[in-house]
Please model this.
Amino acid sequence: MALVFFHEQTIRIDALRILLKSRLVLGCLFAIALSITETKLKAQIDAAMGLKRLTQDQWTIITDLPIDREIESWPKVLDQALLSWCQKWSIDPATAKTWPLVIHCMADRKVFDQAGLLQGVPAFEDGIQIADKVFLREQPSSYYRRHLLLHEATHWVMYRAFGGGGSPWFMEGMAEMQGTHRWENGQLTMAIIPGDARSVPHWGRFKRLAESTAAMRMPSIKQILRYGNDRENRMDRYAWSWAACVYLCNHPVYGPFLQRASAAPLDYSMKLSEELEKSLSSRWEWVERDWKLFVDDFDFGYQPDSNPVALEGWAQGIGDFGSGEISLDADSANGWQFAQCFLKAGQQVEIRAQGTYVVRVVNQEAWECSPEGITYEYHRQMPLGKLLGGFVSADTSKPLEVFGVGKQALYEATSDGWLLFRINEPVGQRHDNEGKIQVRSRITSSQPR
Model:
C-alpha cells in the first residue's frame, strides 16, 4: 500500500508540475501578448496625438513632423558625427555606441506637452539638451534644423564623455563649431567655415558678427570668456562664442593653452575660463590685438590654416620706426601682413605702393589689378583689390583702424601701434589671387604726442 501511495503521490506531483509549467508558459505567453498590446497601445496613443517614433540603434527620434527622407537620414548623420567626436576627443567608440539619445523634434510644443514628454523641461527658444535627451523646435530650413540637432548632440556627447561642456562660451562655441557642417551625398563634415550663405540657409552667424561690429558692440576675448547663462542677446553671444572658439582653437600660439584648459573632466562652471585667462595673463594684450585682426578678416570662406594671425611673434623686438624706410612685398592672396614697424602717436608715415596682381579669375580670364583696385566691383565701400592699411593700437581698448592706401597715402598714428597691409577683397575670394604689391613706407614728420 505504501508503494502504491508513493506511486500515486508521484503521479500527482508530476501532474502538478505539468500544470504549473503549463500555467508558466501561458503566463509568459500572456505577458508577451500584453507587452505587444502595450507597444501597440503606445503606438496608437502616439499616432492619435500625431507623434511618430523612429528608432535605430542608440538613436530614438520622436516627432510630430512627417518622417521624410531628411529625418530618416538623422541616424546616419549621428553615426558619422559620433565617430568624428570619438576620433577628435579620443573617446572609445564601443563605449559611445552604448549611450542612448532620444531626440524630440517639435513643430507643436503642445502635442509633446500633452503626451507628457516635457515634464521637467524648461522653456526654450530653439533647442535644449538634458542628460540623454535633446529637444528641438522646428526651424525654417532643413540645414538649420540639422545644425541645431548637431549643436545639441555636441552638448550631449560632451556631457557623456567629459561630465560637462565647460564654461558657457566654450560650451556654446564648441557646439556651434560642430553644428556648422556640410551634408552631401550621405557624407557629413563638421566644424566647417561655410563658403557662402546659400550653403547654410537661415544660419546667419556672419551677419550677426558684422552687425555687432558695425554697431561698435564687438566684445573683447575677456568679455566673451566671462559670458554667463543669461538669455539676453543670446544669439549674438552664440555667434561671438563660436568666433572665439574658431580663433583660439586654431591660433598657432594660444591654441595649446585652450587645449590644456579644456582637458577633461569638465563641468559647467567658470573654471575653464579662469584657467585659460590665468595661463595667458602675461600676454593677454597680444591675445586681444590678434582677436581684432581675426574678426576683421573672419567671413565666408575663411581658412584658419591659410590666414594665421600672430602679431606677438611678428612685433616682438620691433621698436620705434625712426626715420628709415620700410619695404614689404605684400602677397595679394594673404590676409593682414605686418610691415615690421612700430609707430608712436602723432607720427606721420608716407606710404607708396606699386605692382600688378590678379584678384579674380572668371571663365579663365584673369582680372589684373593695381594698388588702386578695380572700380567695377566694390567691397566695404572701396574698390575691389585696393591696397588697405591697418593700424593695431598698443592700447587694446581701441578698435582696429582700416584705411585705404592705393598707390599713395599719408597716415598719422593716433596712438602707439603697428602698421599692417592687405588688399581689399573678401577672404573667401582670395584663393585665386596671384602677385605681390611692393609697399614702401617712411616717416615724413615725427612729432610724437
Observations:
- The radius of gyration is 31 Å.
- The chain has 14 helices and 19 strands.
